[in-house]
């Protein structure tokens, strides 16, 4: 009878250790949804450009006023969204993005990205821009090119 209790005790210890090891394995870093292993890989083409931006455009050149706050997002995989709509066939490089109405987009656009800028033409109304930013132009149907800028919200 004593051997039954001894074997049962050993069995309980073995089962207890097995349960603990299963909990430890199931809670490993690999299962963390916020782990860098589970985040989308950033395409090298958008390493400088990806993120969320608030954009503006202006009429009247350097003396014009910047208008509107239109959101733009460049995803880590290179998808581009402007004003909530996905851009069709954007052209991406390490520091530039462009798109055309000919590809089915609502506007033509070209922009160059930088980590900070002191370009007076685009940032005259700002003290200093040290975030990721975009500078270029945008063109609506039937209109000329408008100055365009974007500032990262990330």
State the main characteristics.
19% helix, globular, single chain, 2 helices, 154 residues, 2 domains
Short description:
This protein is α+β, with helices and mostly antiparallel strands and 154 residues long. The protein is built from 2 helices and 9 strands.
Provide the fold topology.
Layout: H1 2-26, E1 51-58, E2 66-74, E3 80-82, E4 85-86, E5 91-92, E6 96-99, E7 108-117, H2 120-123, E8 129-139, E9 145-152
Antiparallel strand pairs: 1-2, 1-9, 2-3, 3-4, 5-6, 6-7, 7-8, 8-9
Explained architecture:
The chain folds into two domains: 2-31; 44-152, Beta Barrel (Lipocalin). β1 and β2 form a beta hairpin. It contains two helices and nine strands. Strands 4-3-2-1-9-8-7-6-5 form a nine-stranded antiparallel sheet, with no helix packed on it. With 154 residues, the protein is α+β, with helices and mostly antiparallel strands.
What is the 3D shape? globular
State the separation between the terminal residues, measured CA to CA. Answer: 69 Å
Number of domains: 2
Mean pLDDT across all amino acids: 80
Identify the CATH class of the largest domain: Mainly Beta
Q: What's the quaternary structure here?
A: single chain
Secondary-structure-derived class: alpha+beta
Secondary-structure element order, as H and E?
A: HEEEEEEEHEE
From the 3D coordinates, which CATH architecture of the largest domain would you assign?
A: Beta Barrel
The number of helical runs is: 2
Largest sheet: 9 strands, antiparallel
CATH superfamily of the largest domain: Cathepsin C, exclusion domain
Helix content: 10-25%
Strand order of the largest sheet: 4-3-2-1-9-8-7-6-5
Q: What would you report as the Rg, rounded to the nearest angstrom?
A: 27 Å
Low-pLDDT sequence parts: 19-36
Number of strands: 9
The proportion of strand residues reads: 35-45%
- CATH topology label of the largest domain: Lipocalin
